[in-house]
Amino acid sequence: MDQLTQIILQAGRSAVELSLFVLLPIMVVMLSLMRLLEARGVLDWVVARLAPLLRPAGLTGLGVFAALQINLVSFAAPMATLTMMESRGASDRHLAATLAMVMAMAQANVTFPMAAMGLAFGPALLLSIVGGVMAAAATYHLFGRRLSSVEATMDETLHHRVADDAKGVLDVINRAGAEAFKISVGAIPMLVLALVAVMALRASGGIDLLTGLLTPLLRTFDLDPALILLTLTKYIAGGTAMMGVMDEMLKAGTTSIDTLNASAGFLIHPFDVAGVAVLISAGRRVAAVWKPAALGAVVGIAVRTVGHGLL
Got the DSSP string for 99-137? Predict the structure, then answer.
């Protein structure tokens, strides 16, 4: 019982430290910047110019905005855009392509904090964009080609706050800060539970047993055995939990920054049990196209994984 209590307390300290002293300040700054760019119309300008280029990949203007949201805000931010697309009459093919893109891209609430751990942010962002576009194209032209292409006349106007004066700027920053605080504090329960599970498995010898069984196979492909624990955490508990485990492993010296960067394409994205459940709650039609979107997401994640491996 004493050992379990110590594990819980240690996991709690690590989770709070990561959420409040790493995730929160980074998200406050980046969300404030993102929301100010949005309020000043910069993102509208970017979307208007990128949308024609990405339409052959199955992405509309709102799809491009969803890409900016996941890369610059968080994995949950595109939910509102997916809901908007559904309510405004986007076709099932466009919904599936956008969902696949979101599931294959790197979420900002993980990439920004992990950049402080040693993640090469520039290459990660570039490969996130490439992988997301590939996922959308594969879904639109291959896996979702039999979905309905019937589409209402789409209103792709982006409704958001403006910041034309000092009061407007301050209001945007305050709201971004509140949003960042909600994201950071909301991550604590999952981080605590994931770290408790990992530490308990480690103390019981379960991790060592599994690692011993799989290490020869991983060594054949020149892969770090630390990926076993990181992969289990990622695909069961989600990206934020994986980030917490990665932080602990880096501090303990059981993995390296090289492994972090090489595995980023495989580990940093919302395509996991928790992430998919959240994203498909955006709407009934969004949930209905998750299967072809998931296949497209696998293509995008594979492209990112190879890209990071080569770098």
Answer: HHHHHHSPPHHHHHHHHHHT--HHHHHHHHHHHHHHHHH
